[in-house]
């Protein structure tokens, strides 16, 4: 499994537009083959900081995702929406298990 964790600081005046872009991206991404989960959230302390948590079955699923029109549309819009540098981290996961609370 491949997991991507990304944070995007969004310019406050572009927040509504960014939310619509992210909503479209997330909805369409979740419908792709090979995507286990694809979520976008806002930070509890900063409503202009968005966090992406993406889970892919394989490298091939991730590579297919970055070639989709909805990903490319988001990627093209992003420079205008940002208020700082994004931070993207990739995790290659060998084992996954539930944690009981």
What does this structure look like?
This protein has helices at residues 15-30, 59-65, 69-81; strands at 2-9, 35-42, 49-56, 87-92. The protein is globular. The protein is an alpha+beta fold and 101 residues long. Helix 1 (15-30) packs antiparallel against helix 3. A hairpin with a 6-residue loop joins strand 2 (35-42) and strand 3 (49-56). A four-stranded antiparallel beta sheet has the order 2-3-1-4. It has three helices and four strands. The chain has a single domain (2-92), classed as Alpha-Beta Plaits, CATH 3.30.70.100.
Short description:
With 101 residues, the protein is α+β, with helices and mostly antiparallel strands. Helices cover 36% and strands 30% of the residues.
